[in-house]
């Protein structure tokens, strides 16, 4: 287990080190822990003031915190204006996640004319079809399938059983979690007197750099043009991104969200869990949806939008639903009363 000194971690995250009695800048840290459970040799963080009481009682070696919380800290502190960001960088430094593969496994099936850069690792039973290009230090986990003529750029990691279809392009430093499917057919059919006729999906999927895709998420290939996921996009588990969707830079999508076909989502948007966005609409930059939002038309103004109905006691909810059913007749009665008042 690799360890770092308090000073090394402080320098790495851009924090000011404040030492508690008995500690020194060379005190060793080997892992991350929570305020409630961290011990000697572990570092924790405080980014929410409601956990300040835990800060006072923590047995962590050190805590990453905002300078305002220093008076409540009973151990060494790494002070920064954004403790949660500091925690993220410290966690990266102390990360113990293994590689997706340790070598090119003897059971891997590698097709003709595959181009591989330096340090490529391919797990057991993975299939790399002909014409694939793998950049330097790409990791392909066990059981993955990389389709014909796909390309994956340097330092990208695929966990086990990821399927990348033919011609898909994946950028640098991407992370794709287990069982994700990139480049499957979009939902394209024409109706011939009740019989569905499949439309071949001849576009592809293009992922930019630093894109992260969650487990069991599906991104469909374009019908004619491409599905495009721009740099820095992060997508949670079990999401569906349909054909010809375009997601702008640094947009974040939480679990179980569905984006229907040919929709364009702007840059720096956040879409909370279990949201649904209809097809053929455009969402502006810096739009943020709360959980369970149903988006049925385009949005051209940045801001926060909601449509999910929070849970309430059953009796209260039933009364609300009765009122909702009667809203049309109530509106009509109000209009009639307004007419009478005008007269």
TrEMBL record:
Residue limits of the UDP-3-O-[3-hydroxymyristoyl] glucosamine N-acyltransferase non-repeat region domain? 28-93
Give the Gene Ontology MF terms in alphabetical order.
UDP-3-O-[(3R)-3-hydroxyacyl]-glucosamine N-acyltransferase activity
* Pathways per UniProt: Bacterial outer membrane biogenesis; LPS lipid A biosynthesis
Q: Which class of enzymes does this protein belong to?
A: transferase
SUPFAM superfamilies (UniProt xref): Trimeric LpxA-like enzymes (SSF51161)
Q: Provide the alphabetized UniProt keywords.
A: Acyltransferase, Lipid A biosynthesis, Lipid biosynthesis, Lipid metabolism, Repeat, Transferase
Q: Domain of life here?
A: Bacteria
Matching entries from InterPro entries are given as:
Hexapep, LpxD, Trimer_LpxA-like_sf, UDP_GlcNAc_AcTrfase_non-rep
Q: Which reaction does it catalyse?
A: a UDP-3-O-[(3R)-3-hydroxyacyl]-alpha-D-glucosamine + a (3R)-hydroxyacyl-[ACP] = a UDP-2-N,3-O-bis[(3R)-3-hydroxyacyl]-alpha-D-glucosamine + holo-[ACP] + H(+)
- Record Gene3D superfamilies: 1.20.5.170, Hexapeptide repeat proteins (2.160.10.10), MurE/MurF, N-terminal domain (3.40.1390.10)
Annotated active site = 243
- In its keyword annotation, does this UniProt entry include Endoplasmic reticulum? no
Give the EC number(s) under which this enzyme is classified.
Answer: 2.3.1.191
For this chain, the family text in UniProt reads:
Belongs to the transferase hexapeptide repeat family. LpxD subfamily.
Report the protein's function: Catalyzes the N-acylation of UDP-3-O-acylglucosamine using 3-hydroxyacyl-ACP as the acyl donor. Is involved in the biosynthesis of lipid A, a phosphorylated glycolipid that anchors the lipopolysaccharide to the outer membrane of the cell.
Tell me, how does this one assemble?
Homotrimer.
Q: Which NCBIfam families match?
A: lipid_A_lpxD (TIGR01853), PRK00892.1 (NF002060)
Q: State the HAMAP family in the record.
A: LpxD
Q: What is this protein called?
A: UDP-3-O-acylglucosamine N-acyltransferase
Organism for this UniProt entry: Fluctibacter corallii
Q: Which gene encodes it?
A: lpxD
């Amino acid at each position: 287990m690799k360890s770092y000194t308090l000073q090394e971690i402080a320098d790495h995250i851009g924090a000011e080190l404040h030492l508690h009695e008995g500690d020194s800048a060379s005190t060793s840290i080997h892992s991350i822990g929570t305020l409630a459970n961290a011990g000697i040799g572990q570092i924790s963080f405080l980014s929410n003031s409601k956990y300040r009481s835990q800060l006072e009682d923590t047995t962590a070696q050190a805590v990453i915190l905002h300078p305002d919380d220093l008076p409540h800290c009973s151990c060494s502190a790494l002070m920064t204006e954004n403790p949660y960001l500091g925690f993220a960088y410290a966690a990266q430094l102390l990360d113990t996640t293994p590689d997706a593969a340790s070598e090119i496994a003897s059971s891997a099936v590698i097709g003709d004319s595959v181009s591989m850069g330096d340090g490529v690792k391919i797990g057991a039973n993975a299939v790399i079809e002909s014409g694939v290009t793998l950049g330097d230090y790409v990791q392909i986990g066990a059981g993955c399938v990389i389709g014909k003529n796909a390309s994956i750029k340097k330092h990208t990691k695929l966990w086990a059983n990821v399927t990348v279809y033919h011609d898909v392009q994946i950028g640098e430093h991407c992370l794709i979690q287990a069982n994700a499917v990139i480049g499957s057919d979009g939902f394209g059919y024409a109706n011939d007197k009740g019989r569905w006729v499949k439309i071949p999906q001849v576009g592809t999927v293009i992922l930019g750099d630093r894109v992260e895709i969650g487990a069991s998420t599906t991104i469909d290939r374009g019908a004619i043009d491409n599905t495009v996921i721009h740099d820095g996009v992060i997508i949670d588990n079990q999401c569906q991104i349909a054909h010809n969707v375009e997601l702008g830079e640094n947009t974040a999508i939480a679990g179980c969200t569905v984006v229907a076909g040919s929709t364009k989502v702007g840059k720096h948007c956040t879409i909370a869990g279990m949201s649904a966005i209809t097809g053929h609409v455009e969402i502006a930059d810096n739009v943020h949806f709360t959980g369970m939002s149903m988006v049925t038309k385009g949005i051209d103004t940045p801001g926060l939008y909601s449509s999910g109905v929070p849970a309430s006691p059953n009796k209260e909810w039933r009364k609300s639903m009765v009122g909702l059913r009667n809203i049309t007749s109530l509106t009509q009665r109000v209009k009639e009363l307004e007419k009478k008042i005008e007269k």
